[in-house]
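Anyone up for a design puzzle?
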């Protein structure tokens, strides 16, 4: 006989439709406004934009009345244009530019403002293109302009190459002491941020010299050159280079060597030659007059004796 408990079975529960409906994720509605059609004529829509072409250099407001850059000053800046070539030195350009503009004074106008106004006139070619490609209103101060200019035209790779040239400097065969020293200083000048101390510079230059020039430098130092302090060593080298340079100049003039055709120092050599010639002529004339006077004295003395 079946009991009630044996007839029991599990009735599956019905889903609560109301709850399932509430659990569904809400679908976001796109409420963005529908763009309106541009009813302007196509010729007007195709015109190039006129905004967004501001200069990279932000020039501060000038409160001075009747201020203007003189054309003579602009021409002076343009006498030495920087074009961004590999053989050009950005540091030298900045030094030359500041030598012109540092002394410019205008009432109620800061000197840095004058530099910001004038600097674009000193650029051309690749350098001018660089400034035009800088983001608008991105250069606010003169220091900022110098930093961006130097870093662009003097990348870290150039610094590394010049530092290696300084470290591996060697005197060339048939190169005089003064010529080697000038060439070494030129490398230091090209890379003013080389980071080498004066002691390191002098040690590098001393070890780059030939044995004869090392011995000559030791003699000028009164012993071992490296026993001197860096400042004393620098003074010894400078004095020695000046003496050698002056001797070479006199020898070239005395042997009638032709002056360099494409050198700014040719006029100086001509002046030196003319001065030496005048001095020699004057000395010869004085000696000739002395000889004539001596001959006259001798003639008078003879005539007195014979009388």
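Challenge accepted. My sequence:
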């Amino acid at each position: 006989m079946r009991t009630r408990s044996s007839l029991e079975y599990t009735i599956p529960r019905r889903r609560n439709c109301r709850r399932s409906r509430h659990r569904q994720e809400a679908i976001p509605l796109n409420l963005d406004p529908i763009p309106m059609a541009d009813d302007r004529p196509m010729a007007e829509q195709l015109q190039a934009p006129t905004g967004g072409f501001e200069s990279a250099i932000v020039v501060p407001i000038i409160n001075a009345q009747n201020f203007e850059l003189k054309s003579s000053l602009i021409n002076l800046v343009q006498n030495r244009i920087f074009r961004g070539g590999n053989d050009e030195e950005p540091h030298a350009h900045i030094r030359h530019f500041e030598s012109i503009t540092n002394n410019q004074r205008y009432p109620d106008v800061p000197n840095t403002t004058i530099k910001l106004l004038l600097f674009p006139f000193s650029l051309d070619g690749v350098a001018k293109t660089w400034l035009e490609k800088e983001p608008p209103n991105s250069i606010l101060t003169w220091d900022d302009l110098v930093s961006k200019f130097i870093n662009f035209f003097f990348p870290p790779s150039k610094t590394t190459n010049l530092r290696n040239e300084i470290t591996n400097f060697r005197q060339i065969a048939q190169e005089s002491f003064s010529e080697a020293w000038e060439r070494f200083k030129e490398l230091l000048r090209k890379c003013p941020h080389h980071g080498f101390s004066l002691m390191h510079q002098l040690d590098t230059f001393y070890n780059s010299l030939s044995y004869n020039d090392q011995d000559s430098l030791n003699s000028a130092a009164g012993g071992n050159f490296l026993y001197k302090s860096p400042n004393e060593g620098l003074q010894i080298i400078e004095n020695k280079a000046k003496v050698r340079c002056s001797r070479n100049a006199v020898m070239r003039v005395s042997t009638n060597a032709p002056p360099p055709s494409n050198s700014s120092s040719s006029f100086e050599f001509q002046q030196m030659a003319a001065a030496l010639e005048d001095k020699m002529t004057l000395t010869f004339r004085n000696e000739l007059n002395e000889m004539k006077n001596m001959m006259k004295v001798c003639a008078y003395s003879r005539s007195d004796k014979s009388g």
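A detail worth pointing out: DSSP finds 13 helices and no strands in the chain.
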